[in-house]
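ok trying again, last paste got cut off:
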Amino acid sequence: MARFYVTTPIYYVNDAPHIGHAYTTVIADAMARWHRLLGDETFFLTGTDEHGLKVQRAAEARGMTPKEWADVTAERFRDAWAQLAISNDDFIRTSEPRHHRAVQEFLQRVYDNGHIELGTYEGLYCVACEAYYTPDELIDGELCPIHERPVERVKEDNWFFKLSRFQEPLLDWYAEHPGFVRPETKRNEALGFIRGGLEDFSISRSSITWGVPIPWDPSQVTYVWFDALVNYLTAIGFGEDDERFASWWPASHHIIGKDILRFHCVYWPAMLLAAGLEPPQDVTVHGFLLVGGEKMSKTRLNQIAPADLVEEFGVDGFRYHFLRDVPVGPDGDFSYERMVDRYNGDLANNFGNLLSRVATVVGKKCGGTGPAPRADSPLAPVAAEAYEAAARAWDEFAPSQALEATWRLVRETNALLEATEPWKMDPGPEVEAVLGDALEALRIVSVLASPAIPAASEEAWRRIGLPGSPSDQRLPAAAAWGGYPGGLPVTKGAPLFPRLTPSA
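nice, full thing came through this time. structure:
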């Protein structure tokens, strides 16, 4: 049995969950659901990043301890993911004892290998990013390029990771693993950063107490990014369960936004090599999810909470839009109007309407009992092509293309009904043939669409009389034409996706 380990970034607890976080998480969830359909042993990790100066200051401002503040804010992410039907197998928090133990074990290995040394650092630090910048990276020489806020000058005696030693090993790794970073544009960006020269960076802080103590120097705590990246190892038993860890690592698939590319595609593989571990199998980098052409931020007041859209579009409407309309790689620009159009077009008018009218005609012409499909149906090759194209797309971490392939089968089934007009036929073999084909197409679509719209797929499955759930099926067998047995009760029910009228 194949294994599939997929991760999101862990989200900083000082943030509120917004549609950018949700986009990354829904991609990872859909990938996990797809691989479960393939029968792969799947592990899906998400969680929260809870250490660092930013959290310590936020807690102090509220008269709370950092752990108390993290406890409150981490629940916002748990609640948001539960609302979006996120099927994570673990939710890791970096304040957990298991993570502290893993970070200290990792640090000790890197230190023992001679890649951490004491030094003095003076540099420009963005508290919001928990990252240092060089003057030429700043906007107007003083503003963080991500948050557009003034940076602080910090001087400390710190422990340094000797990143500069890993320029050539990283270039060699990239050459030997051409698929390590996708898409190609992001791979080239990471390579450009490496070729530009790597500088050692501070991995400890003496000015704060909220973090993982350095094992050989408890007067300092671990730099939040060095700490956070280790979460991908913690969750699969690093330092505590060697057998479990070896079974999952390095077969890991990270899904991240482009703003943290250098941490995941440069620092992280170097850290792993320094610890004597292999880098992950691959990193998929998506662009920013923009609103009105601008990156979401509190200062611009353009952050959109997932709950606000779920209230209008439903969970599956939310998931489908972001998976279908925001291809992985380039920046995407959120548009309420486009979301309405996609919902009404693909979900209400195509999938939902197909299910409704098939159920209606089965009720009128077949006494409510679904007939079996034809072996030589004109939809059979369409279904085969849809599955092959969808499978290729999911394998390439391209959910937008996978859903486009799946919906070709929906559209072709609707076209068959329009061409034959079974509602005008007399009951008998001819109408049963068309409706059996349509029911079989609905069965296959319910399976192929379930990673994106799990609740609607399950409801469609139930309405055409099938036992169990689409998530119980296994591909490729479940996509093979002829699986609908016939003789099952078909029910219409309420609209699967009620049409929406755009709000004013």
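cool. The domain at 341-489 is CATH 1.10.730.10 (Isoleucyl-tRNA Synthetase; Domain 1). DSSP finds 16 helices and 19 strands in the chain.
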